[in-house]
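Appendix C: a fully annotated inverse folding record. The material below is reproduced so that readers can follow the format used throughout the book. The structure is listed first as tokens, followed by the designed sequence.
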């Protein structure tokens, strides 16, 4: 009996004392801002679906899977998506408070943290990527900064060499 109790105590010592989460690190995101070009009362978002596609015509579109933090969520005037990775092409389908469900054009993933402007038309949605520093991956920003620093350093070294050669000639 004491051997079993001792074995149980030893086994309990190796179990973690708290929950361990292995799903860490940044994940790609998409943010959708909506502007309306409708006559009359503004509409609000009731629900939405983000379709992911491998084909450029989105003929193979399937809704993004709701797994852990991954998914597509909408509020009254905006939507956002987070994923473990996105397909190259997308289409959104949004149901509005006027009872209409509007579908967008096919659009491409614009970057790691993508931002889109969605124009609400009477019978459709027009999605356009908004490009800025947010569309670069964090490592891309570091690479661009390093390249700029390298160019500036090269210009400074070149200027010093030219000035030293001129001073030696005089």
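Designed amino acids, in order:
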């Amino acid at each position: 009996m004491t051997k079993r109790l001792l074995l149980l105590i030893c086994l309990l010592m190796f179990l973690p004392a708290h929950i361990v989460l292995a799903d860490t690190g940044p994940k790609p995101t998409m943010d959708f801002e909506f502007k309306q070009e409708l006559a009359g009362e503004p509409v609000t978002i009731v629900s939405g679906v983000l379709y992911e596609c491998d084909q450029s015509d989105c003929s193979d579109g399937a809704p993004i899977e709701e797994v852990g933090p991954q998914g597509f969520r909408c509020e009254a005037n905006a939507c956002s998506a987070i994923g473990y990775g996105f397909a190259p092409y997308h289409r959104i389908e949004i149901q509005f408070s006027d009872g209409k469900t509007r579908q967008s054009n096919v659009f491409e993933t614009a970057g790691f943290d993508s931002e889109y402007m969605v124009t609400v038309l009477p019978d459709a949605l027009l999605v356009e990527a908004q490009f800025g520093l947010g569309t670069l991956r964090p490592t891309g920003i570091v690479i661009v900064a390093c390249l700029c620093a390298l160019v500036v350093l090269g210009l400074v070294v070149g200027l010093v060499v030219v000035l030293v050669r001129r001073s030696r000639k005089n």
